[in-house]
Structures are given as structure tokens and as C-alpha cells.
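Quick board copy: two proteins, each given as sequence then C-alpha cells.
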Amino acid sequence: MKLMHTTETGSLIALQAQDTSLDDLARRIISIPEEILALNAAFEEKKNSMTAAKDALVKLQVEKKAGELSIAEKEEEIRKHQRDLNMVKDNDAFKALLTEIETAKKRQDEIETEVLGLLEAIDKAAADEKLQRREVVKLEEEKNLRSRALEAEKKDCEAALETAKAGRAEAAAKISEEIAEKYEFVRAQRKGLAIVRVKEDKAGKISCGGCNMGLTAQKIVDIKTTDALVFCDNCQRMIYRAV
């Protein structure tokens, strides 16, 4: 289709505006639940981070407790060996007990050093866990606030969509069946954009406002024709030139 004689170009432009508005509203309505899901997912991820921080803290505290028990065991072992020193008469046994005492003390010192390291790690882990908890509380408040706003926006969009449908019906009623069929066919093929205004650069080059393909000399003559509906040779969209 190259050209159709009609006086309905203005009505088609108005209809396209209505359809664009409807499409935008429909897309927004669909996107809002996705945004809410994304907010919930981000919140769950943050909660998981908080849980991981808490688990890390508990693990360190358990390790510290185990270390403290080991220190107490070594202290008792040392005391026992020291008591045994007073009862042995054999020199070799005496030396063996001294060696065991020194070994136990060395191990006790090592464990105490490990516990000190754990104490530092616990302080850091506790601070991180506290920060994570504060962030979770803050994020939950923000999530709930944003979710309520999105739900309200969705209701507004749904109401606006119904109003826009009524306006669309009025605009469509002004167009003949033949032209409407052409419009709907092109719109379905071109992602909702059936009629577009041509673009003209400073050099005077005129191109389709939909696909940006430059128009032939004949096509430029056509769009300047009164009461003519012109189709782009490349994308088949209806094109018009602003008066």
C-alpha cells in the first residue's frame, strides 16, 4: 500500500495517542507487581545477610566458649601434674611430669592467644550483626512504604485505563472500517506504533519517524498531498507531515 485518499489522518493521530496511552498504562500495571516482587526479594536477601551475620557471631562465640573450656582443662591438668610432683620419687618420672607441665602450659598459652583473637573477631561480628539488623529494619520500612505507594499507583492506573478505553472507543468511532483495519494491522506488526510524524533535519532530508528511513522524492510529494494517507516503503507505517 503506497497511498490512500482520506480525510481521517487527524483522527488516526488522535487514536494513536489514545492507544499509546493505553499501552503505557497496561505496561505500568503489569510492571508494578514485578517491582513489588523485586522489593520483597531485596528484603529477603538482606534478611539472609542478617541471618548469616548472626550465625557467624554465634559460631565465634561457641568457639570462644570451647577455647575457655580447653584453658580450664589445661589449668586442671597442670595442677594435677604439680600435685603428682610431690609424690614421685623416681627422677625420670619427675622429669617426665615437668615435661608434661611445660607442654600443657605451652598449649594453654596457645589457646589463650586463640581466644584473644576470637574476642576481637566477636567484637567485629557483633558490630556487623547489629548493623545488619538496623539495615533490615530500615529496609523493611522502606519496602512497606514503597509497596503501599505502588499498590495505590496500580489502582490509579487501572482506573485511568478504564477511562482511556472509553476515550479510545470515541476516537475509533470517527474512523472508517477500512482505515481502521489498516491501522490495526500495522499497529500489530509494529509494536503498537501505526502512524508517525516524519522527521526533517536542517539539510531538508525527510525520514520516517518510526524506522528513520529516508523518504524518496515521490514519497515526499505524497505526504504533501492534501487528504492523503501515506505508508512508509520500509516499515509500512502510516506517515504524515505536520502542517
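And the next:
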Amino acid sequence: MRTMRGLGGILLFLALWEAAVRSGLFVYEYLPAPTAIAESFSVLVTDRDVVAETIHTVGATLLGWSIAASIGISLGALLGFSKTARDYGLATVELLRPIPAVALVPVAMLLFGFSIKTELVVIIIPSIWPVLVSTMRGIMGVPARLEDVASSLRLSRLEAVIKVLIPASAPAVLVGCRLSMTTALVLAIVSEMLGNPQGIGYAVVREAQALQPDLMFAYVLITGFLGVALNSGLVVLSKLLLPGEFMRPAAMQEER
């Protein structure tokens, strides 16, 4: 029901946009109506290499996100389990985390030129932080009673970590991974616009420079669809890995 209401809001917005453009209420030379944008999708399919561009963007996003998630989970687990690591490493994390992703583009271009390496550098570094922080907070937030349970079962420290602490912190880790995936897609588009002339991001810039606003908006919508698809894939993966987290009564789901 909530999804249907959301779709209704989108359709209402598109209808108002169409009416405003057709009536002349909004007079912008390069603002096409939604119907014109929809028609341009057929042009993309027949005349543009949109499949290869999409594959490039999705591939860079997934590769960068996978590397970032692996690093983030590893470092987050270290900081979460070790007070010594937090004492010596947390200040460095807080220093590096606020650096804007766009600021990495010139640095990466100087080192790697216009290449996929530049794109991956821009994706990976900022995408580490959501996973790292969520993993660290998730581990630190594990209730003390679970550690008491592990002690009562006479589990070794390694067994307690693997069998108790890591599963208990998994929901927080998955939340960090979802946030990181969104960040990775955004940065892939940005890096393609600024540092690596390939993929959907470069296509948006190309069509804007060619004064093809309907095609430009079509590419922008494709990025939105990619975001929804990637997030939905992670939601499905989360349900498979942590089914209990999603097994809530229907009444609770409706309230949310």
C-alpha cells in the first residue's frame, strides 16, 4: 500500500510537470516535458550504446563498493573489538572522513589520468566510511549479556567473536553497506563526469553539451533506476542473510 501511494505521488508530480511545460507556465528552453523524455528512451536503445555505458557504471560501482566494504568491515571490526586500535586510529578516521569526494578527483587524475583507476579511487575512499563506522558501532553496541552467554558456554575469544559478536552486529554492518552502495553509485557518476569519460555520468555531460536535454534527462533517470535496483538487491540479500530482522507482523509493517 505504501509503495502504491509513493507511485501515485510520482505520477502526480509528472502530470503537473507535463502540464506546466505544455501550458507555458515554465518557460525554459532546455526543460523538456516528461513525454519527450519518455520518447527519448527509444532513441537511447536504438542509436546509443546505453547498454555498454550502463554496464561500465554498474561494474565500476560494484567493484569499488566491494573493495570499500571489505576494507570498511575489516577496519571497523578492528576498531570495534580493540580499544587500543580506537585510541590510536579513531582520530585518523575522523580526520579523513570529512574530505569531500570531489576533492579526490584532481588527485586521482594526476596519479592515474583518465582511467578506471581514477574512478575507483574516487569511489572507494569515501565509500569506506559508512561501512567502517557502522561496523564499529555495531560491534561496540552488542549487549554485554551476549558476551556473558559466550562465557557461560565456555567459548574461546575467537569462537565468541565468530559465533556471537559478529552475528549480533550484522544488522548494523548491512546498514552501512547499503549506505556505502548509494555513495558508490553517486561517486561513480561524478567521477565519470569529471575524471573518466565513460559510462552514464559522461553520457549525461555529453548530451548536455550537445544541447539534447531530453536525452540528458533520460540518462539521469537511468541513474535513478540503477540506484533503486542496486538498493533492492541489497535488501534482498539482507533478507536472505538475516531473515529474522525482516520477519515482523504485518501490523508493524503497516505502521511504518
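Board note added afterward: The chain is about 80% helix and 0% strand.
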